[in-house]
Amino acid sequence: GIVNSALGSLAAYTLQGEISDNPAGWPLLVEPRTFNPQSGLRHLEFMSVRQFVARSHKVQDAFLADPGWRLTAEFGGGKWKLFESVIASPSLVRVWNKPLNAYASTDLQRDLLQWMYVPAAVVEPMILVSDRVTTPPLRVESHDAYLTTLAQLATQPPPSSGWLDACSTPVEAVEQRSDGSLRFRTEHLGQPHVAAVTYFSSWRVRGANAVYFLTPGYLVVYPTENEVILYHSKGVIERLSEVISIVGVLVLAGYFFWWERFGGRRSRE
Fold first, then answer.
1. In what order do the strands lie in the sheet with 193-195?
2. Which of 34, 55, 148, 259 has the fewest CB atoms inside 10 Å of its own CB, making it the most exposed?
3. Cis peptide before 216, with omega less than 30 degrees from 0?
C-alpha cells in the first residue's frame, strides 16, 4: 500500500510493463501495459536510467535493435546482457530547451499516468498544479487543455534515439548531498531546469521562486540565481514526531536515574 501510494511508483509500474515481457502485478490505478520498447526505452532515458540488465531474449533483442543503447557486457554464458545508454551525461538535472506548459490538476496520480500512457508525450513533460497558488513565470491552463494536448500527442509516434539531447542540455555541476538535498550551478537563469528526482510536497528551493510538479512525478525549477539548492523542509507531523521521541528519551532517562538512586536502594532495604 505504501509503495503503490507513491507518485513515482506509478510511473515505474507503467514503465516496467513497457520494457518487460513478463511484468509483475499492477496497482489499481495503473492500466496494464503491453511490451512497447519504442516507448519504454525513451521513458528509461528521460528517467535517467543509463544502464539496464536484460535476461529475456525479447527484451535483449529490443535493446540490440535500438541505436540509443549499446551492449557492454554479458554474464552467465550470455544469458544476461548489460546495456548502456549512449547518452554520455548521467546528470539528474537538465535545462529544457523550450518552454514547459502548466496545467491545472485535481488528481496528480491519475494525470501523471495519463501522460505516461502517451509515448510521444515524453518530449513534452508537463507541469501540473494541484492548487491555485502559483508564482511566475507560470501561466496555468485548464485541465481540459491538458487532456486535449495529450490527445493531440497520442496521434504522433514516440521520438527516436537521441531525442533527449536534442530537447535538453545537461547541467554538469550537480552535487547530491547526504541529507537528500541537491545543489547545482547554472548560467541559464529563468529557463526550466528538470530534476529527475521524485516529487514530494516537502521540497523547497533556494535560488528559485518555487518547486513545481512535473510529469511523471519529477521536479522543475526556474532559477533566479546561479546557485540552486533543492532541500526538504520538515512538516508539522515530522517535527511533532521528533519532539515526542525526545520527550520519550528524557522520560526513560529520568526513570532509570530515579531507579538507580531511589528504587534500587528501597529494594535492597
1. 140-141, 102-104, 127-129, 212-214, 218-221, 193-195, 93-96, 168-170
2. 34
3. yes
**Rounded to an integer, what distance in angstroms lies between the CA atom of residue 61 and that of residue 45?**
18
The whole model's pTM is what? 0.83
What the block records as the C-alpha cell of 194 is 528538470
Q: Tell me, what amino acid is at 74?
A: E
pLDDT digit string (tens) for 7-46?
Answer: 778 888 899 899 998 887 777 788 888 899 999 999 999 9
Could you write out the DSSP letters of every residue in the chain? Answer: -HHHHSHHHHHHHHHHHHH-SS-----TTSPP----HHHHHHHHHHTT--EEEE-SHHHHHHHHT-TTEEEEEEETTTTEEEEEES-----SEEEESS---EEE-S-HHHHHHHHHT-GGGGGS--EEE-SS---TT--EEPHHHHHHHHHHHTTSPPPPTTHHHHHEEE---EEE-TTS-EEEE-S-TTS-EEE-S---TTEEEESBS--EEETTTEEEE-BSSSEEEEEE---HHHHHHHHHHHHHHHHHHHHHHHIIIIIHHHHH-
In the block, cell 536510467 appears at 49
Q: Describe the crossing of helices 37-46 and 7-19 by its angle, rounded to 10 degrees.
A: 140
- The 51-54 sheet, strands edge to edge: 51-54, 80-85, 69-75
Closest CA to 223 of 125, 130, 96, 132: 96
Contact, 119 vs 42, CB < 8 A? yes
Amino acid identity at 52: F
Using an 8 Å Cβ cutoff, are 126 and 102 in contact?
yes
